[in-house]
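Work package 3, deliverable 3.1, input record:
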Amino acid sequence: MNINNLLKKLTIEEKIGQLMQLAPFFFIGDLKKEVYGPIEALGLDEDEVFLAGSVLGIGSADEMKRVQNSYLKRSRHKIPLIFMADIIHGYKTIFPVPLAMAASFNPELVKKAARISAIEAQTAGIHVTFSPMSDLSRDPRWGRVVESFGEDPYLNGVFSKAMVEGYQHDGIDKIGNLASCVKHFAAYGASEAGRDYNTVDISRLNLHQYYLSGYKKALEAGAQLVMTSFNIFEGVPATTNQYLLKELLREKWEFNGVIISDYDSLPQTIAHGTSEDELDAAKKGLLASLDIEMASASYMNNLKKLIEEGHLDIKLLDEAVLRVLKLKKDLGLFNDPYKGADSRLEEILVLSKEHLDVALSLARESLVLLKNDNLLPLDKKEKVIIIGSYAKENNTMGPWSWHGKKEDIMPLDKAISMYGEVLLSKPVKSLAELTKDDITLIKKSDVVILAMGEESSESGEAKSKTNLRLSLDEKEIIKYIKSLKKRSVLVLYNGRPLVLSEITPYVDGIIETFFLGTMSSEAIAETLYGHNNPSGKLPMSFPRSEGQIPVYYNHLNTGRPAKNKNELYASTYLDSSNEPLYPFGFGLSYSEFIYEKIALDKKEITKDETLKVKIDVTNKSKFAGKETIQLYIRDYKASVSRPVKELKQFKKIYFKPFEKKTVLFEVTKEDLKYINTNLKRTIDKGLFAIMIGGSSDKLLKETFEVI
Ligand code: BGC
């Protein structure tokens, strides 16, 4: 297919149509009804609907085929639709939510999960996934932290890359692979006060230092599309932002793939107050090189007029259309418009043993042990009680798991009963729901498992919160169990870091599971009974109180860093420590890992030299286990203030019982570079520190000079 020749045959309306994305029902619904419903709301007529270039969301292979078929029948040039959807952490085999994936510190496993998501989703005829979400997230009030890889730029880059490589695998033309659309460009995670869709006001320096790494790594890994964000940057909505889209993406990063708006975000520039009306929004969108408009019709309703009246050059339209046609060609859709859609294959592949095994491995590595006062692992002879809203719940998928079915998931109490004796399992939400008989059983038990947290609908898009604590009723249950002198373990389900300060003294153990997906209960039960040794580490700090937010480990030193707690006239609080309750990189294990003897091969290096670093790590326990050895640097003197520590590398390593290993790292100039006020990556001479450990707050340190 020669797309340049094809372009020449298209009328201006047909070209503009390629830039419009609509939901599937437009093409197969009862058109008469639709014409008076959403179609009319968008100001479209039936003919215009059938000019659209792509579809948002699809339910199954049969639905995809029906939509494509009905579309192609009416299409003059038979240009197939592309089907795009939010396959965020699995199609039907649901993997841990992205925040939990990041806690695994295991990009290889996450790549496999993305690969499986692609294989499964492709059977429904999906070609593009709106993933990864590479928005750096420092504010747990923001509901979308659940879709992110957390607060660290390096980790964000590592996982963004892994996801793209998993989805696109050996090429988007092949069956079983998806094209990846990285989102939301840019800095959506910096919404003020953690309120979704809110203002973003950060400097260019900040954008480049911290917020861009995820998108950049995704693009370097070959992501084919970029989605714009809802927020403004430097006062201009991202969707029409010339600096972000043209200067940075197209020119500096030489991205020539498709840029798509977020849902309705082009006409929303009117509410932002930067476009006068849809005509103006359409003009600004095309000038910024925005290609596809998702779920709105500003382009369809206005581009023709803008071009014919000479306000826009048709060249811009042609370039945008060519990018869309090229994506269709690269996906192989001109050869097979129904590519991948195969309900028989779906039955064989979806939820296969192989896929579930990967989901289980990732769930095992994603959960984080936050507290363990000699309670875990449990002995199978101990009699347990399971209470809390997740005691019998099988919906452990978390947000953005449209195609997953809770019926495919084992409830927690069933999984636990395979390992130990369950005296009672009851999904109580308040103390009042416990009967006298229940209390008698609790008194007879050895351990109470408290399965609690947020509902899945409390995180995700538009799910910002100001109160990050467990409910009053849940806290009452926890305190009551403690008053009975019962030992307890809190198994947490939630989509964001919670404020746990009031709860930690009342429980003996805490397992943070986030939402682990289809194999959640198996992974949790194995962990409770020691068949899985927890190895997850937090990708985001857990604050002591909401008032500390944003609290992140890679903060700057300030001119008045505190030497002592609550020091006056230093950068501290009167009523709280600066430190979070659980820091970035923290996570316990049943093994005990000891770090000793950090050593550098040189005390001075030139800018081009590599520094060899080693450290001894010993598992001083009888439990075999994995440990994530984290390497941070600090650059003490630079032309701009640098963070007190920054993760630069990590290695997740398996240790046999009582095994000792010398772990080696090579620190190169890439690890030492920073971005200066000219937005250039550079190294200054001077003092640096290397810090290594199993958590960002417990590190061994050595210094060296760059000369
Ligand atoms: C979200 C995107 C998502 C899109 C399509 C928007 O509301 O912000 O992340 O990909 O909807 O579902």
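The first strand starts at residue 20 and ends at 22.
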